[in-house]
Design a protein that fits this description.
The chain is an all-alpha fold. It has 4 helices and no strands. Helix 1 runs antiparallel to helix 4 and helix 2 runs antiparallel to helix 3. The protein is flat, with a radius of gyration of 18 Å. Keywords: Membrane, Transmembrane, Transmembrane helix.
Length: about 140
């Protein structure tokens, strides 16, 4: 049985993750802003909740980026299965946390939700801007 020939690796595989430093810096700035807004609107619990929401999205999106980048460098055929597995694990874990979390009476839950929403919007926007800027430069 013939072996499958792999395509040559790109000259610069770093392009897959070169946006992470910018997105990490934006996420940390957003974490500080979310914590400040949470504190001003609801006290320490809301500050912690808002910051945790931003951190959840940052870790989740960074993990996806790294898994997908690794799979693409090792074997591009692994992209879809590993990408889907990553999303299934992440969203299953989030679902379990939320299923148990709704029974906990913690004042920071609403702020955590708003932190997640804001971080998703900002991360997606910054990544879209970065991709657009990279494509236009070529």
């Amino acid at each position: 049985m013939p072996t499958e020939e792999r395509p040559a690796a790109p000259a610069n595989p770093g392009w897959r993750t070169e946006h992470l430093p910018l997105l990490s810096a934006v996420s940390m700035a957003m974490l500080l802003c979310a914590a400040s807004a949470g504190f001003l609107t609801g006290g320490p619990d809301s500050a912690l909740g808002a910051a945790a929401g931003v951190l959840i999205v940052t870790v989740s999106y960074t993990m996806s980026t790294l898994v997908i980048a690794w799979a693409d460098t090792v074997r591009p055929a692994l992209l879809m299965p590993l990408g889907m597995l990553t999303y299934v694990v992440k969203y299953s874990l989030l679902g379990v946390i939320l299923a148990f979390g709704v029974h906990i009476k913690w004042p920071g839950w609403t702020a955590l939700g708003w932190g997640i929403v804001a971080a998703v919007v900002v991360w997606t926007g910054v990544q879209a801007w970065w991709v657009h800027r990279r494509v236009v430069q070529k």
